[in-house]
Amino acid sequence: MSTDEDYVHVPSREHENMVNPPSGTFAVQMGISPRLYNNDLAPTTRAGRHWSGYSIFTLWANDVHSLGNYAFAIGLFSLGLTGGAILGALAFGALFLFLLLTLSGFMGEKTGVPFPVMSRISFGIHGAQIPAIIRGGVAIAWFGIQTYLASQVLQVVIIAIFPGFASLQHGSFLGLSAAGWITFLALWVIQVIIVSYGMEMIRHYEAYAGPIILATFVALATWVLVQSGFQIDWNPGKAVSGGDMWLKILGAASLWVSIYGTFVLNFCDFTRNAKSRKSIVKGNIWGIPVNMLFFGLIVVVLTGGSFKISGHLITSPADVVAAIPNTFLLVLASLALIALTIAVNLMANFVAPTYALNNLFPRHLNFRRAALISAVIGLILTPWNMYNSPVVINVFLGGLGALLGPLFGIIMVDYWLIKKTRINVPELYSDAPGSEYAYTRGFNPRAVIALIIAGIIALLFTFLPVFATVRDFSWFLAAGLGAVIYGLIADKRGPFHDVHGDEIAVSPQH
């Protein structure tokens, strides 16, 4: 428990909600550095937090039902898992995710800070750039790839309405046809406009998109059931059994958790706006175990029902949409899938690099400018070429992704077990020598060493064939290694002060 002596007194502001980034005079008065602080990196005020349990739920209502997740879950049938085994794997994964995401979410609710600032607790005020850039690098690449995949669906929609548009699919410039450029840029612009209005606009978009997505998948499942005569094949593949089955179930559950390896890191970017811990728990209960089992049932119905109809395994809900004979219904379903992809992109792949860039240049960037730069980088990378290159996907994104587990382990052990949630929020923005998170020239060498050792082993798990048997469990192994190594070498002497950030908090402006 903290005492009155633990709290640092700082002068009150003249205005409760600042509209502009802090001036040099303000920074000196508050004991913070303009190199570490601006309106978007500042803690959020309690009064300015509007994310309810429903807001958290709609994040998962959109993200869980992403096309990538459906492709993953449907692919489990080809590994020999039955519909019941897949539901079991998703249930195990959902329980792990509920625990991890709730612990991660509580960190954001207590401090009110985004992930790059949260990382300063473990890695230091400057060392925090390491996890922020790794997380942002993974996200910015996937932002472009997801936009590209959505543009492919948009082309199908436009051609269904205007068949002449198909003529623009011929030819290529930088690897993309004229039709490809038109649809990609259209979706790119839409996402930039939404995110430029900040986290509150993202909350509103997710809140409206969530029910639409759920209704769309219920409609698709119902259509498949009707077409199949309400018959479902729960075992459309070659089923495995015994110990091999349980190994595949646990491996699938572990992979399901690793898919969210990015989200468990920066969930505080969203929960810093949560009204209370109760909102996080309520949103996570409905959004993770309940919603994920509902997702699993949809997977079984779409896959097992489609197999009854055609005798072939589908690879994605898009296959079901493409089979809809009515053009009007096909267009509506395709537009819903596009809305879904945008929702997933905003939350999973746009917010993280925006805060990472903000953290790099807080005196020159705000949320809107950083979001635009993130989007431009995502365009310059020509993500369609990345997606079509397995080497780039596996080496670049696989390599960066392998480091997410160790980062999570280090940050969680430091926050929950070593510092026991005692966080000096104002000093997260102080570069004064001897400040609580200055460590050694702004870097915590113990956290960096733990990341290097655990990261190297994680990369070996990812790329060396000899570790193929444990690859499904690599995220847990890497996270555990990061946690254990840092737990052994971390400085546990303290003292660790529990100081709220109310005096430097800012209400969200959008």
From TrEMBL:
- What Pfam families does this protein's entry cite? Transp_cyt_pur
Q: What is its main location?
A: membrane
Kindly list any coiled-coil regions of this protein. Answer: none
Similarity remark: Belongs to the purine-cytosine permease (2.A.39) family.
Q: What is this protein called?
A: Nitrate reductase
Enumerate the GO terms in the molecular function aspect: nucleobase transmembrane transporter activity
Q: Where in the cell is it found?
A: Membrane
